[in-house]
Amino acid sequence: MTYNFTFNNKSYHGSLSNGVDLSIPLQAGPGHLAAWYVDPISIEPVKGDGFVGAVAEGGSVNFRNVFFNPHGHGTHTECLGHITPKVYSVNKVLTNFHCPALLVTLTPKRKAFADAFSDADDLVFGMDTFENLPEVLPEAFIIRSMPNNVSKLDAVYNNTNPPYILPEVIHELTRRGVKHLLIDLPSVDRESDGGKLLAHHAFWNVPEEPNFERTITELIFVPDYCPDDLYLLNLQMAPFENDASPSRPVIYRAFVD
């Protein structure tokens, strides 16, 4: 099967047979992807009244409870309900599951923030990182951060202060048309910033003019073999009525007609 779309007055096409899944699987037990100090994922058979939900233990079916946190345990998509008093559901916000997407590989730069973060010397994505971006951007913007290696699949980010995006960059991305931001790190904001979440607030215009159409997807993984280019993004997620949900972004390389 093939697809076609138009972006910035150009026509593009591609094949739906060559999709690349950017999601990281959710796995139970310690030693797997985690952020925000959450306990490991637990997947356990239901037991009670003579029933055991495990065929290996004599049960007729595998019937297991799963305990996880969408923000801390894997690839997830979130909406403005992540930072508002009312918990809006991302399942209601995301209604268009396909859109053009630009993949870019970016290297964060070290910068000191003596006033804001107690003499912190952080790796950040600032305006100088985005100097060569086109003026008009597609609805989805995908960031592959450097260095990029498979250790991201099982990284434990607690107390590591990963790179993050400065709010002025967020303002510029949304000005250029970005509605869906995807990144391979735990957050667009600093791990510990006193609860400011400046990039999140900038992206959703909270509290001034809350934007209900935009989403942020975090903890993706983009393989090295995917070149920086324009793609068709298929963004799917589990239909949880929650501010965030586990998601599976799949990209398809786009070619100019």
Which key terms come to mind for this protein?
257 residues; mainly beta; Glucose Oxidase, domain 1; seven-stranded mixed barrel; three-stranded antiparallel β-sheet; 3 helices; globular
Describe this structure in words.
- This protein has 257 residues and is mainly beta.
- It contains 3 helices and 18 strands.
- The chain has a single domain, classed as Putative cyclase (Glucose Oxidase, domain 1, 3-Layer(bba) Sandwich), CATH 3.50.30.50.
- A 7-stranded mixed β-barrel has the order 8-15-14-12-9-16-17. The chain has a 3-stranded antiparallel beta sheet with strand order 1-2-18, with no helix packed on it. Strands 10-11-13 form a 3-stranded mixed beta sheet.
- A hairpin with a 2-residue loop joins strand 1 and strand 2 (10-15).
- It is globular.
- The chain starts with a strand and ends with a strand.
Task: Present the secondary structure layout.
Layout: E1 2-7, E2 10-15, E3 20-21, E4 42-45, E5 47-48, E6 51-52, E7 64-67, E8 76-78, H1 90-93, E9 98-106, E10 109-113, E11 120-125, E12 140-145, E13 164-165, H2 167-175, E14 180-183, H3 198-204, E15 215-218, E16 230-237, E17 244-253, E18 255-256
Parallel strand pairs: 9-12, 11-13, 12-14, 14-15
Antiparallel strand pairs: 1-2, 2-18, 3-17, 4-7, 5-6, 8-15, 8-17, 9-16, 10-11, 16-17
